[in-house]
């Protein structure tokens, strides 16, 4: 329910409306005049305003015009005298949504407020959809997926008011996209010329509160920094979380956002911050199809290769896989899939899900790099050798190790 305000210079009417609405379970804030209402209403959050037309100092029409100049989404219902058609017309021209004739029944007021609420909800829904569409088409990171969790995440990020929630938690396992989500959030709510500043938690002072806060304030005060992205926050001590919580209160009106990326938030402090949860792939399997195709096609485009043909059987097998490192691992597999020549493009080309050791990771990187360079030079080993700065024997040994045949790249 949006905030509802009632403005009338007659105390008896204000009291009766407030009591009647309270009985119906509706909270309504009353003001004796338009000047006080303009001073107190938070115009950053659109709501419903019911105002009398004829008031001293500032009329309801003047009040409506000034209010809508601050936020055009406010829905204003004006109260006019019986049969005062001309006044009602003037109010509607000023931007009022509806009008009621005095004296009015409470049920009619409730109906008018409900209709205004429905219209406000629809307007705000359209604003969110337009902003979300703009973010999905702008240059920068995209939050892909149509699972309920991803739809809700995008909507919550778009609807966020950074002036009220400028300290946030991104909670998720390794590879769930915390860094991309932070950049998405930054792009949503900060100017294009501002930057996201990445900061590892181990860089923060750990033993002195003054040093800790000064360290933050030095960065918060820089106009080019729109967002501080604090990652690996699981290592923060209880003392540092206490300082962060105090810092949040001190920076209540700060234009810079602070986004904290963490696997498991501390139970004592997590309620102090606005929290967004990023689910692992095993809990949003319906997104694997679109993510895998996007990563594979992006890699193919980057290396000027034809997009790979990904079969329904392949998608099904991918969906049934266990992605221990989530999107990070899926992207790695998709890029390797795009780089593989056609006769090696089956599912067998995908690396094992259990890529835990350093040697396995190095082998996969080496294989991907070789495939990329072989594609670039269409299998010409002399050019590959020169770029990678390896001996001919070493190059042949590597090709043999990874079962790569230069002839498969001739027409790449």
TrEMBL record:
It comes from Vibrio gallaecicus. Residues 3-117 form the Response regulatory domain. PROSITE patterns: RESPONSE_REGULATORY, SIGMA54_INTERACT_4. This is Sigma-54-dependent transcriptional regulator. It comes from the Bacteria. The keyword Phosphoprotein applies. The modification 4-aspartylphosphate is found at residue 52. Pfam families: AAA_lid_14, HTH_8, Response_reg, Sigma54_activat. Keywords: ATP-binding, Nucleotide-binding, Phosphoprotein, Transcription, Transcription regulation. Residues 143-339 form the Sigma-54 factor interaction domain. The lineage of its organism: Bacteria, Pseudomonadati, Pseudomonadota, Gammaproteobacteria, Vibrionales. The keyword Transcription regulation applies.
């Amino acid at each position: 329910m949006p905030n509802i305000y009632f403005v009338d210079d007659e105390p008896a009417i204000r009291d009766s409306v407030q009591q009647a609405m309270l009985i119906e379970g509706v909270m309504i804030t009353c003001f004796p005049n338009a000047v006080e209402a303009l001073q107190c209403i938070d115009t950053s959050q659109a709501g419903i305003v019911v105002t009398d037309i004829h008031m001293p100092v500032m009329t309801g029409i003047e009040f409506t015009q000034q209010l809508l100049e601050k936020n055009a989404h406010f829905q204003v219902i004006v109260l006019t005298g019986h049969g005062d058609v001309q006044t009602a017309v003037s109010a509607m021209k000023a931007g009022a949504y509806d009008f009621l004739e005095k004296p009015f029944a409470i049920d009619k007021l409730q109906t008018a407020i409900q209709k205004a609420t429905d219209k406000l909800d629809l307007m705000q829904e359209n604003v969110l959809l337009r902003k979300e569409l703009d973010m999905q088409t702008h240059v920068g990171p995209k939050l892909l997926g149509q699972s309920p969790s991803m739809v809700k995440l995008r909507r919550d990020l778009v609807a966020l008011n950074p002036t009220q929630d400028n300290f946030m938690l991104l909670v998720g396992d390794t590879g769930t996209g915390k860094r991309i989500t932070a950049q998405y959030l930054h792009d949503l709510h900060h100017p294009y010329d501002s930057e996201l500043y990445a900061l590892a938690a181990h860089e923060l002072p750990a033993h002195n509160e003054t040093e800790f806060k000064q360290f933050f304030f030095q960065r918060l005060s820089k106009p080019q920094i729109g967002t501080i992205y604090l990652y690996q926050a699981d290592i923060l001590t209880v003392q540092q979380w206490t300082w962060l919580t105090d810092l949040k209160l001190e920076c209540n009106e700060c234009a810079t956002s602070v986004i904290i990326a963490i696997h498991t938030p501390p139970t004592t402090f997590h309620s102090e911050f606005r929290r967004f949860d990023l689910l692992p792939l095993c809990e949003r399997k319906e997104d694997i199809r679109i993510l895998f195709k996007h990563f594979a096609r992006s890699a193919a485009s980057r290396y000027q290769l034809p997009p790979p043909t990904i079969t329904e059987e392949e998608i099904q097998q991918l969906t049934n896989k266990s992605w221990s490192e989530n999107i990070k691992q899926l992207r790695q597999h998709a890029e390797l899939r795009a780089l593989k020549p056609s006769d090696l493009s089956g599912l067998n080309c995908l690396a094992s899900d259990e890529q835990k050791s350093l040697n396995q990771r190095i082998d996969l990187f080496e294989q991907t790099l070789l495939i990329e360079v072989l594609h670039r030079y269409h299998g010409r080993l002399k050019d590959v050798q020169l770029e990678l700065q390896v001996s001919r024997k070493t190059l042949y040994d590597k090709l043999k190790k990874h079962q790569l045949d230069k002839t498969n790249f001739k027409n790449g």
